[in-house]
Structure formats: structure tokens, C-alpha cells
């Protein structure tokens, strides 16, 4: 599975996926519901206080996890990968390979957007992990996020800030160059 997506994902996303794949090996699971829709309780190897529930629709090969990593980052979590391993799925289903994270997103604009998204995604994952460590941290993280999101939406309404300046365009081109050769 790792070798297969290495040729598909961008470098950054592949690194994130590979880390999840490696960490899936240290997860442990229990089947808690059987049938067409089965449920698994999955525990991170290094921290068994965090319990996640993975729901797997066998006929449609659809899957979801209570950690919601795929929903916010577009990359499957270690818990789902553990369940895939358990049920014998060795090829990543196409619907879980988002086009925006693939190298076939060809235009410069798409690459620039993917680059920014990759970078933000890394931050989001770290942010979510820190913010989910306790109820207090969650409250602080949630409020800070809402404030930041409001700032981004406000900035988006200001046309001057979203029009690409020459400086930004050059910066993006340099980043794309780095992205393509790395
Ligand atoms: Zn998960």
C-alpha cells in the first residue's frame, strides 16, 4: 500500500500517510460489532487512554473513524489503516485518495494551492493533537481557532489582500519549484 501511494501522493502528503501507516502497526483493535457494518475499537499503541471507533461498511468498502482525521486532513488515519490491515484491504480505495493531494494536480495554480494546503494541513494535525489532550486545552484551542477562522474570512472579503501581488507570485513560483524538484 505504501509503495503504491508513493507514486501517487505529493511528497508532503506521502510523508504524512507513511507516518500513519507505520504507527498503525502499533495500534491494537477489538471488533465490537459484526455484520455488513462492523465496528472496531482501536487504541493507539503508545497511549491506550485514547480510544477510537472505526466503522467499516463491508459491501461499499466505506470507512470512518471517530478521530475524523480524514475529514479534516484528507489523509486516512492509523486507526482506519489498522482496520484495513485486519480485513485484508491491501490497496488504498480510490475514494480515499483525494485528487488535490496527488501529483497529477497539474496546473501551477493547483500546485500552489496544494502546497499551501499541505503546509496548513501539517499545522492543523499538530494543532488538533495538542488541542485534544484535555477538555481545557480543547476549549482554548477551539476558541483560538474560531478567532483565527474569523480573521481569515474577514481578510478574504478584503480584495486587496487576496489579489496576488508580484512579490507573492514570485514567492509561490519559488515554492512550486522547490516542490517539483523535491
Ligand atoms: Zn482515526
Automatic annotation (TrEMBL):
<protein>
    <recommendedName>
        <fullName>Protein FAR1-RELATED SEQUENCE</fullName>
    </recommendedName>
</protein>
<dbReference type="InterPro" id="IPR031052">
    <property type="entry name" value="FHY3/FAR1"/>
</dbReference>
<keyword id="KW-0862">Zinc</keyword>
<dbReference type="InterPro" id="IPR007527">
    <property type="entry name" value="Znf_SWIM"/>
</dbReference>
<comment type="function">
    <text>Putative transcription activator involved in regulating light control of development.</text>
</comment>
<dbReference type="InterPro" id="IPR006564">
    <property type="entry name" value="Znf_PMZ"/>
</dbReference>
<keyword id="KW-0863">Zinc-finger</keyword>
<dbReference type="GO" id="GO:0008270">
    <property type="term" value="F:zinc ion binding"/>
</dbReference>
<keyword id="KW-0539">Nucleus</keyword>
<comment type="similarity">
    <text>Belongs to the FHY3/FAR1 family.</text>
</comment>
<dbReference type="Pfam" id="PF04434">
    <property type="entry name" value="SWIM"/>
</dbReference>
<dbReference type="GO" id="GO:0006355">
    <property type="term" value="P:regulation of DNA-templated transcription"/>
</dbReference>
<feature type="domain" description="SWIM-type">
    <location>
        <begin position="52"/>
        <end position="88"/>
    </location>
</feature>
<keyword id="KW-0479">Metal-binding</keyword>
<dbReference type="GO" id="GO:0005634">
    <property type="term" value="C:nucleus"/>
</dbReference>
Amino acid at each position: 500500500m505504501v509503495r503504491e501511494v508513493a507514486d501517487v501522493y505529493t511528497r508532503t502528503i506521502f510523508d504524512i500517510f507513511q507516518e500513519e501507516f507505520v504507527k498503525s502497526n502499533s495500534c491494537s483493535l477489538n471488533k465490537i460489532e459484526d455484520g455488513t457494518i462492523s465496528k472496531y475499537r482501536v487504541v493507539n499503541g503508545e497511549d491506550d487512554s485514547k480510544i477510537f471507533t472505526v466503522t467499516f461498511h463491508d459491501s461499499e468498502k466505506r470507512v470512518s473513524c471517530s478521530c475524523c482525521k480524514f475529514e479534516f486532513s484528507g489523509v486516512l488515519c492509523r486507526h482506519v489503516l489498522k482496520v484495513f490491515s485486519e480485513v485484508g484491504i491491501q490497496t488504498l480505495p480510490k475514494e480515499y485518495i483525494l485528487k488535490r493531494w496527488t501529483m497529477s494536480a497539474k496546473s501551477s495554480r493547483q500546485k500552489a494551492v496544494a502546497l499551501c494546503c499541505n503546509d496548513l494541513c501539517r499545522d492543523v494535525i499538530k494543532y488538533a493533537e495538542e488541542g485534544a489532550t484535555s477538555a481545557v486545552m480543547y476549549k482554548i484551542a477551539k476558541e483560538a481557532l474560531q478567532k483565527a477562522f474569523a480573521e481569515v474570512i474577514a481578510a478574504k472579503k478584503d480584495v486587496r489582500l487576496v489579489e496576488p501581488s508580484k512579490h507573492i507570485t514570485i514567492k509561490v513560483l519559488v515554492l512550486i519549484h522547490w516542490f517539483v524538484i523535491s
